[in-house]
């Protein structure tokens, strides 16, 4: 029996606060004109105090589950891919698991920077195709605004916050991710990084003073690398799937810079209309950019059942990759899932588990003291 992993639900969540190029031009020496011309970006969303990577990820996940009509109880695996995790550990995916009440799910994070969603989608596809799991969530979520030096015009004009989630479900019908290309070149790691806060340079007064906890980027080099790999990896995944480029109805690329997407279109000799572009609205939301662009393409009626599409991305690592995908959509609904009640139950379970842990701790503490 051959199994496939279909994308049957999707959702996004972006913060309410919009930061325009003009807003940034009031903070530093830049202009709306420069940013639009060099990147295509007009505005981006910025996380407010109430937002976090896990809150955005959970909101997107709940929307995706509702669309697929899947109860959180039936989710077996949650992968969050992010470069702005809530903590070094625990995994942001575990926080999401608790928030959405996915009591039967395993949860882990994948870090492959802006290529993370491509990697995570492929990893989940392989686990579903192996028969290990039937239902999983893949979420790309970022609050990179919290890692930006808001005096550095090279980086802070580019990035934005947001999250996108897909539900993946097993089926014997062909569909979902059909082929993949995943690549890395660690020799370019220093071109785009957050140098401190990990074990190489643990956080200290010095690292903070030197701004090493912020994103550092060599924009020109990353640009050169991106324009080389986007078309090449798209062609590689198409050849693995045995598909002709003419069969492709849409290419959904990582949204970093409109000029990079234009270069990919030239490289593939495709009209730019074949590409989904929404970088003007959200900036570069890193791992969230592909699912956010996908959901918007669907809402605009550009994505239909059985369409053959390509997801392609690149980012820090250096990393890059592409997937050939057959778009499915929700499976037929047998009985509507009572999401409101389940969400209330999820809160209750989380609260109950915390209470039991506290009481357990008190009892063990007393026993320990009297032993
Ligand atoms: O997910 C992956 C994330 N990273 C990327 O995708 C980054 C890829 N790189 C890029 O998108 C582009 O390299 C940037 C948008 C970052 C920069 O565009 P560029 O066309 O490569 O500009 P540049 O770095 O070559 O700089 C050109 C000029 C410089 O001035 P001089 O030296 O020519 O006088 C910069 O100082 O533009 C200046 N500049 C700016 N001017 C106004 C750089 N940033 C700004 C700015 N506003 N924000």
Question: How many individual β-strands?
Answer: 13
Q: At the third CATH level, what is the topology name of the largest domain?
A: Peroxisomal Thiolase, Chain A, domain 1
Spell out the CATH superfamily of the largest domain.
Thiolase/Chalcone synthase
Distance between the termini: 57 Å
Bound small molecules, deduplicated:
oxa(dethia)-CoA
- The number of helical elements comes to 12
CATH architecture identity of the largest domain: 3-Layer(aba) Sandwich
Range of strand content: 15-25%
Domain count:
2
Mean pLDDT: 95
Order of helices and strands: EEHHEHEHEHEHEEEHEHEHHHEEH
- The 3D shape can be described as globular
Percent helix among the residues? 25-40%
Q: Which class of secondary structure composition applies to the elements? A: alpha/beta
Largest sheet: 5 strands, mixed
Computed CA radius of gyration, to the nearest angstrom: 21 Å
For this structure, the quaternary state is single chain
Low-confidence stretches: none
Q: Trace the largest sheet across and list its strands.
A: 1-7-6-4-5
CATH class of the largest domain: Alpha Beta
Keywords:
371 residues; 2 domains; globular; binds oxa(dethia)-CoA
Structure description:
- This protein is α/β, with parallel strands linked by helices.
- It has 2 domains: 4-326, Thiolase/Chalcone synthase (Peroxisomal Thiolase, Chain A, domain 1), CATH 3.40.47; 338-371.
- The protein is built from 12 helices and 13 strands.
- The strands form 4 sheets. It has a 5-stranded mixed β-sheet with strand order 1-7-6-4-5, sandwiched between helices. Strands 8-13-12-11 form a 4-stranded mixed β-sheet. The protein has a two-stranded antiparallel sheet with strand order 2-3.
- Helix 3 packs across helix 4 (92-100) and helix 8 packs parallel to helix 9 (258-268).
- The longest helix has 32 residues, at 339-370.
- The structure holds oxa(dethia)-CoA.
- The site of oxa(dethia)-CoA has 19 residues, from helix 2, helix 6 and helix 8.
């Amino acid at each position: 029996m051959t199994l496939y992993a279909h994308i049957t639900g999707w959702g996004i969540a972006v913060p309410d606060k919009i930061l325009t190029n003009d807003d940034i031009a009031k903070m530093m020496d830049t202009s709306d004109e420069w940013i639009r011309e060099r990147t295509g970006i007009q505005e981006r969303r910025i996380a407010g105090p109430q937002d976090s990577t896990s809150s955005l990820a959970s909101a997107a996940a709940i929307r995706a589950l509702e669309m697929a009509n899947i109860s959180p109880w039936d989710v077996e695996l949650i992968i969050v891919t992010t470069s702005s995790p809530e903590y070094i550990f625990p995994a942001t995916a575990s926080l999401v698991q608790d928030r959405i009440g996915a009591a039967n799910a395993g949860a882990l994070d994948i870090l492959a920077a802006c290529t993370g969603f491509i990697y995570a989608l492929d990893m989940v596809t392989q686990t579903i195709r192996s028969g290990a799991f039937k239902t999983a969530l893949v979420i790309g979520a970022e609050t990179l605004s919290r890692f930006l030096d808001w005096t550095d015009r090279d980086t802070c004009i580019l990035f934005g916050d947001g999250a996108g989630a897909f539900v993946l479900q097993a089926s014997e019908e062909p569909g979902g991710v059909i082929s993949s290309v995943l690549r890395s070149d660690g020799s370019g790691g220093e071109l785009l990084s957050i140098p401190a806060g990990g074990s190489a340079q643990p956080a200290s007064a010095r690292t903070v003073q030197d701004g090493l906890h912020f994103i550092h980027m060599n924009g020109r080099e990353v640009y050169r690398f991106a324009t080389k790999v986007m078309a090449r990896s798209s062609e590689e995944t198409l050849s693995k799937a045995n598909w002709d480029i003419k069969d492709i109805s849409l290419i959904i690329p990582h949204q970093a810079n409109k000029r990079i997407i234009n270069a990919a279109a030239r490289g593939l000799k495709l009209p730019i209309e074949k590409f989904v572009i929404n970088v003007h609205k959200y900036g570069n939301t890193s791992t969230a950019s592909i699912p956010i662009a996908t959901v918007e393409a669907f809402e605009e009626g550009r994505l239909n059942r059985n369409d053959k599409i390509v997801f392609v991305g690149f980012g820090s690592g250096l990393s890059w990759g592409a997937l050939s995908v057959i778009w499915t959509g929700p499976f037929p609904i047998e009985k509507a899932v009572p999401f409101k009640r389940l969400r209330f139950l999820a809160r209750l379970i989380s609260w109950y588990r915390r209470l039991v842990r506290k009481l357990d701790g008190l009892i063990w503490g007393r026993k320990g003291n009297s032993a």
